Every structure is written in C-alpha cells, then in structure tokens.
Amino acid sequence: MSKDYEVLLYYKYVPIEDPEQFTKDELMYCKSIGLRGRILISSEGINGTVSGPKEVTKKYMDHMHSMDKFSDLWFKIDEADDYAHKKMFVRHRDEIVSLKLEDDVDPLETTGHHLEPEQFREAMQDDDTVIIDTRNDYEYELGHFKNAINPDIHAFRELPQWLQDNKEKFMDKKVLVYCTGGVRCEKLSGYLVREGIGKEIGQLYGGIENYSQNEETKGDLWEGKMYVFDERISVPINRVNPTVIGVDHFDGTPCERYINCGNPECNRQILASEENQEKYLGGCCHECRVHPRNRYVKARGWSTEEVKERLAAIGEELPDGVEA
Ligand SMILES: [Zn+2]
C-alpha cells in the first residue's frame, strides 16, 4: 500500500562558498516546485527535512544530486499521507546544528566511528558500553533505545557541559551516541573524541530513522516512538516488538500525545490525553494554569467563574486579584 507523499531527511557536512546566496537560490527553487519543510544552510554544510507529493520530492532530490557537491547526498525517505510541513523555510545559520562550542569541531576531520545499524545493535549489547541519547528531554520521553542514558537537556547546545560534568562515568567505557537522522552525532561524537571522553566512540550512521528502516535491525531494541520535528510529531520505529513508554504528564498512564503548555511563556512540550489537558486547563503546573495569558483557557472562552470551578475540581484556586 503505497502512499502519495514523502518526507525526506538529510544532511551533509561539506564546505559551501557563499552560503547566503545559496540559501536564497534554494528557497526560490524549493518554493517554485511546491516543496515544504525546513532547510538549514551554513558554510559547513546542509541539514534538511522536507516533504511533498512524490513527484515533487523526486524533483528536489534530482536537483540536489545534479550539483557536484551533493551528487552523493543521502536522502532518508519516509512515505506519508500528506505534507509533513506547513511552509517552506530555507535559513542561513552559523552551524547546521546548534552546538555553539567556543572551539568548534569539524566532523570532516574529527568524528566518532560510523556504525551501520547492525553494528550499532551489536555494540549496544556489549557490557562495557554506555549509550547516550544526544537528543532533548522531550524527545527521549516518547521513545529511546533500551538502556540509553538521558542527559535531560532542553537544547543540544547544553550537551557538552553535561558531558563535562559526567565524564568520569564514561572515561573507561565505549561510548555510543545516536540521534534522529545522524547530523547531531557527527559533531557531538567529534567533540567526545577531541575531549577524550570515552575510550572508543561510535555513532549510529543515518540515525534512528536509518535503524528503523534497516531490514536487519527493523528498529529492534527501540522502546516507544520517535519524536520528529514536523506535523507528524511522532513516528513508529520498532517493527519487531513495538511498545509504548510515553506517560501522561498528569496521571502517569501510557500516552503518546504531545501538547504544548498553554502558558506562552512556558510552552513546554508534555505528553497528555485530551481529557487531562482539559482537566488541568492546558497548563503543565499550577503557575501555568493560572497564567493570565494561558492560551488554552483563552481558546475555550471560559469565564473567570468557570476557571475557578475547574481549578476547584483539581484542588487549586485562582490567586487573589487574578482574572482568567
Ligand atoms: Zn507550563
């Protein structure tokens, strides 16, 4: 049963001259063919996720492959029912993943061993090995490799500091790192190599996406789903023995539904059922629930009286002087 749309995930570290001009040209081209998604371009390379009808994604892949620099660009392809993005963005950045090191790492010079999915699966089962999830906390919560360590970071650029703070635990171990499509690990594993953290560094080539599609591994040893940065929000990975590990922020029951906290100043991503989202006024905590700009309350059009009643039902009340 083949679907009509595709989502492409890709990156390549390769020097790009005049990345600003290339960014403008690519934006114009992508829009002209009806592609949507998000592409980051820098002098160090390209990192993108885009979607569209199959004839459009095919056109885009041909376009990229026609350039010498990108003739070998590896597109990880996922079929989809629709566009996975609302708009087309092509942006120029200092880095194609934001690690913001004072002394940057060039993954073309320094990086961890690229492990194919089968090799990665084998390496994960070695007792002398630690597996570090290089993604953010909300990505880990929905799904991760069995026994992987969660650094509990909110943004990728926080990871180097976490590694420095915890390096004693990894010094005499083999270290494995993984991320969605592989781009974050190119630089991060290079950082581990340079800093001498871990006695051997391996990175999952092509990321979780490739591990899921690989016919040998079929996503084996992955627990839960994978968070993706597009309209789909999550995708299945394990095709051998899929499980649910996400839990509802409010009551701890199994849940894979993401919401943003209704407080625009918090905006935290949490897992919650529709019922609990309503019960807890769309806010992750009391402070967010009673925030005067709580979007969830505004969208419902609840009166102050109604908000008070709803808060009372969960044993909370509006602070003095606050109107909903
Ligand atoms: Zn909140």
TrEMBL record:
GO MF annotations, alphabetized: oxidoreductase activity, acting on paired donors, with incorporation or reduction of molecular oxygen
Source species, domain of life: Bacteria
Keyword terms, alphabetized: Oxidoreductase, tRNA processing
EC number of the protein: 1.14.-.-
InterPro entries, per database record: Rhodanese-like_dom, Rhodanese-like_dom_sf, Rhodanese_C, TrhO, TRHO_N
Class of this enzyme: oxidoreductase
Keyword check for Transmembrane: no
Domain Rhodanese: 125-220
One GO BP: tRNA modification
CDD domains, per the entry: RHOD_YceA
Reaction equations catalysed: uridine(34) in tRNA + AH2 + O2 = 5-hydroxyuridine(34) in tRNA + A + H2O
Sequence similarity: Belongs to the TrhO family.
Function comment: Catalyzes oxygen-dependent 5-hydroxyuridine (ho5U) modification at position 34 in tRNAs.
The protein's name: tRNA uridine(34) hydroxylase
